[in-house]
């Protein structure tokens, strides 16, 4: 039986044991060549022996996360998709936050009128929907390995039965950043807009974040935050890293992300995630002073 160990939790000034790990994917468990941390797979059975779920949290869709979850052998663990807009376990939805339909229709009409060149990508559950296969869609399909469905987005959005978890708006950098500036002057009280790349504008319900997903998973597993370790590499991981009992930043993370973490592991090209798990969860040491 693998040994569960205590670490010193500075936030609560007591000893805690990790009972759940929540990790980002790109730039964290995947290296610069999009290959999985080479030592992570061998650690999954040890985490299972300790009943420690390993939850993947990403802007990716369920289909984008599924192959990684399968390769790790953790298909029995929840996944937090679309940065937490959809938390699922197999075909069961544990929690979801969908974009307000009224605001979504307003946004769609605004884009078609004022920014007609922007590629609109709609994500609903496992489905990726587009009006047409443009150059941006082709690039995204190459990156994710997914295939979009071509349909009338206007009709899909207007259908009262459909739910939309995320929009991804893509164009050249100047256009997307101009779009973001324009949207900041329009009233979208329940919708959040943020850049995931210089030319990628993500759109979700304003309650969506990896931090919120962390809180919801803590409640689902009936755990305190001090019993959860989070690992990430980018700015959108900061709230999650700051909120968990043990927040770990990757060695390749920006300085601001590292500053917010309890500790920093090696980079994604140096198996940083598996090293952190070995050191802070499965180490032979009996106490860890973070």
Automatic annotation (TrEMBL):
Keyword check for Hydrolase, yes or no.
yes
Which keywords accompany this UniProt record? Hydrolase
Q: Which GO terms describe its molecular function?
A: magnesium ion binding; phosphatase activity
Q: Does the keyword Cell wall biogenesis/degradation apply?
A: no
* Cross-referenced Pfam families: Hydrolase_3
Q: Which SUPFAM superfamilies match?
A: HAD-like (SSF56784)
- What's the name of the protein? Cof-like hydrolase
Q: What organism does the UniProt record list as the source?
A: Streptococcus peroris ATCC 700780
Gene encoding this polypeptide?
cof
């Amino acid at each position: 039986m693998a040994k569960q160990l205590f670490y010193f939790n500075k936030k609560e000034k007591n000893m805690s044991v990790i009972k759940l790990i929540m990790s980002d994917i790109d730039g964290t468990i995947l290296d610069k060549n999009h290959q999985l941390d080479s030592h992570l797979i061998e650690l999954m059975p040890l985490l299972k022996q300790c009943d420690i779920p390993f939850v993947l949290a990403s802007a990716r869709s369920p289909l984008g996360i599924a192959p990684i979850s399968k390769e790790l052998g953790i298909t029995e663990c929840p996944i937090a998709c679309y940065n937490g807009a959809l938390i699922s376990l197999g075909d069961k939805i544990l929690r979801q936050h969908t974009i307000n339909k009224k605001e979504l229709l307003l946004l769609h009409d605004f884009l078609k009128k004022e920014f007609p060149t922007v590629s609109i990508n709609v994500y609903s559950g496992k489905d990726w929907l587009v009006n047409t296969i443009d150059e941006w869609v082709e690039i995204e399909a190459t990156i994710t390995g997914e295939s979009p469905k071509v349909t009338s987005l206007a009709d899909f959005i207007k259908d009262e039965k459909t739910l939309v978890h995320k929009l991804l708006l893509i164009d050249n950098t100047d256009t997307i950043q101009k779009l973001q500036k324009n949207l900041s002057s329009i009233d979208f009280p329940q919708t959040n807009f943020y850049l995931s790349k210089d030319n990628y504008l993500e759109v979700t319900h304003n309650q969506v974040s990896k931090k919120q997903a962390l809180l919801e998973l803590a409640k689902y597993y009936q755990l305190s935050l001090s019993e959860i370790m989070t690992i990430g590499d980018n700015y959108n991981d900061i709230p999650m890293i700051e909120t968990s009992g043990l927040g770990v930043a990757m060695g390749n993370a920006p300085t601001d992300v590292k500053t917010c973490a309890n500790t920093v592991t090696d980079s994604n090209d140096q198996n940083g995630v598996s090293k952190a798990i070995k050191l802070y969860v499965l180490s032979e040491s009996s106490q860890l002073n973070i």
